[in-house]
Amino acid sequence: VKRYIRKGIPNEHRALIWMIVSGAQTNMEQNPGYYHRLLEGEKNDKLVEAIKTDMNRTFPDNVKFRKTADPCLQHTLYNVLVAYGHHNTAVGYCQGMNFIAGYLILITKNEEESFWLLDALIGRILPDYYSPAMLGLKTDQEVLGELVKMKVPAVAELMERHGVMWTLVVSRWFICLFIDILPVETVLRIWDCLFYEGSKIIFRVALTLIKQHQAFILEASNFPDICDKFKQITKGTFVTECHSFMQQIFTDPGSLSMATINNLRESCREKLLSQG
Prior knowledge:
GTPase activator activity
């Protein structure tokens, strides 16, 4: 299964495979009617307001998300986000979730499936990325910093020398899961693996981008220059050739076990908590 998924799931099977491998299908079947009950229940006004504010900012260039579209996916997106905010009150709604839910809707073309896939991502695959304190997200950015120290030390040293925090250059990679950062086809291939293999895929992609462009990044001589280089490394033929790119992410960073990531997560989380 892993090999099949790494080779890229055909588009017409994508929604089904994502649903199955992520556990979303099982959850949906075990909770019939739950999604619709969420939509019919009492609404939190603040949550609804926050979601409405972001509606027009979600894929403004995509015709299907325009108010004039028929059917207009804005309505579907609104439902998925409102339902999720009431399902997971600890998270509610935060920016970034709109893009992820929007992508899920485009792929599944199904409101309820998009809700359960969003739940798989936010509840299990990306723990604590979108909670108000975003501790999981901050932790994983620090984990990436530690992995770069191990695997691309020259870049880590450059970042340290110029006082560039990882969150400044990679936070959108993690929050948006590479949406609007890498080409669509490449993002979908990454998500194929993300649903099956979990969050370590994000580290593989990030490390590959950094390792492949090491010489280019090291040309930077100041803070703004470094930030600019990180914007540049997500463009060009290296990322548009999605087949070879996906092969690279499994070879370039070398071995990367979940045990290593979990150990780093533990130490980075403790460090962040002690800093308050």
